[in-house]
Design a protein that fits this description.
By secondary structure, this protein is of the alpha/beta class. The chain has 13 helices and 9 strands. Helix 10 crosses helix 11, helix 10 packs across helix 13 and helix 11 crosses helix 12.
Length: 290
């Protein structure tokens, strides 16, 4: 262990806490990396921050030094018991034994007196589910700084027309802006993952200019359309939407609505911007047959 490594392995061994494959645990062991993530997150001394997945406190400790309050959610009962027994977390950290995917973000926003500021080193196995949860709860969020598998991070920031561009790219563009702020190699974790990681900052507040310029639209319908469009992404939009979840509309009607929205029915989903999808959503919403 180098002088810059946190004593994660030692704690796990001494207290018989094995990293859970089921929970997808990879503990950040590099002290400077943890400190840099907190620094780049932009948190201030006035902030109350929710940490999703406290683990053994790699991010919690430097975070608690910079903010007013940390509310930490942790699913692993063994880790929660360890912290309770050793009382090793700073006094401004409240540890809650909870599955972060079941957390009530609206209620947490009330507890922290404002939109949530979230920090997390996420298990790769739940990152997609958590990202969709953030999208669904975007009105309760200020920002989220997340450690993700590099491949997932690339999907969030993918340009239109690339193979990485997909459902998450579009739905996040509908409510937030996303920026990659850091690259993290496998050697900075225990156990060592087989992939590289990135840290992204997803900003919901203030509302990004591109989001603010979108016309009002039904977000639930948008999500249905985006899911259908990318559900069979190799097909043309006319075919993928016809085969998807846009009920009550014939193939001919879908083709007409695409053309009406300025979209070539023969193009594919990855060619559409969020603006295109919103125009199509409003055209379908206004269609009498819908």
């Amino acid at each position: 262990m180098s002088s810059n490594d946190l004593p994660i392995k030692k704690i796990l061994t001494e207290h018989q806490l094995a990293p859970s494959k089921k929970l997808g645990q990879n503990f950040l062991v590099h002290r400077q990396t943890a400190e840099r993530i907190v620094e780049l997150s932009g948190v201030t001394s006035d902030d109350s921050v929710v940490e999703l997945g406290v683990g053994l406190g790699s991010l919690t400790m430097p975070l608690a030094e910079r903010v007013k309050q940390v509310i930490g959610l942790e699913l692993d009962a063994g880790i929660v018991a360890y912290h309770q027994e050793h009382q090793d977390l700073p006094s401004n950290v409240t540890l809650i034994h909870q599955d972060l995917l079941k957390a009530d973000f609206a209620e947490l926003a009330v507890q922290t007196n404002g939109p949530l500021k979230i920090l997390a080193n996420l298990p790769y196995s739940i990152s997609n589910m958590l990202l969709f949860k953030l999208i669904e709860n975007h009105e309760s969020l200020d920002f989220a700084v997340l450690m993700l598998q590099k491949e997932v991070g690339q999907r969030l920031t993918a340009p239109v027309g690339t193979k990485e561009y997909g459902v998450l790219s579009v739905l996040l563009a509908d409510c937030a802006s996303v920026k990659t702020i850091m690259q993290v190699g496998p050697g900075q974790f225990h156990p060592r993952p087989k992939v590289d990681s990135v840290v992204v900052r997803i900003t919901f507040r203030p509302v990004p200019p591109r989001v603010a310029e979108l016309p009002p639209h039904d977000r639930k319908l948008l999500r249905r359309i985006v899911n259908a469009a990318f559900g069979q992404r190799r097909k043309t939009l006319r075919n993928s939407l016809s085969a998807g979840m846009i009920k009550g509309l014939s193939r001919e009607q879908i083709s007409a609505l695409l053309s009406q929205s300025g979209i070539n029915p023969e193009t594919r989903a990855e060619r559409l911007t969020i603006e295109d999808f919103v125009r199509l959503t409003n055209a379908i919403a206004d269609c009498p047959s819908h």
